[in-house]
């Protein structure tokens, strides 16, 4: 049986594959785990720290600004009351971020 020309490999290529396959089966797991541990402490954790610092600085620069209330007719439609509280507040209502049908709550906003 003849092997097609695209599947033919030189003896050096076959020897290299055998060596790499043997190396992969002996101790490659420990080396891979060590590599990922180093990458975690050197790249991932500082990256998360930088993202946290960036978010904090943007929050400090932005300040406490609330958008003006615009009573669009297609938003905040209440066809029936919510079954909790006074029936006008959603379950996870935030007085600063969520407006009621007639505007934001309180005068400090």
UniProtKB/TrEMBL annotation:
It is found in: Mitochondrion inner membrane. One of its GO terms (cellular component) is mitochondrial inner membrane. It is a single-pass membrane protein. One of its GO terms (biological process) is mitochondrial electron transport, cytochrome c to oxygen. It comes from the Eukaryota. GO terms for molecular function: enzyme regulator activity; oxidoreductase activity. InterPro entries: Cyt_c_oxidase_su6a, Cyt_c_oxidase_su6a_CS, Cyt_c_oxidase_su6a_sf. Keywords: Membrane, Mitochondrion, Mitochondrion inner membrane, Oxidoreductase, Transit peptide, Transmembrane, Transmembrane helix. The keyword Transmembrane helix applies. Pathway: Energy metabolism; oxidative phosphorylation. Belongs to the cytochrome c oxidase subunit 6A family. This is Cytochrome c oxidase subunit. It comes from Oryzias javanicus (Javanese ricefish).
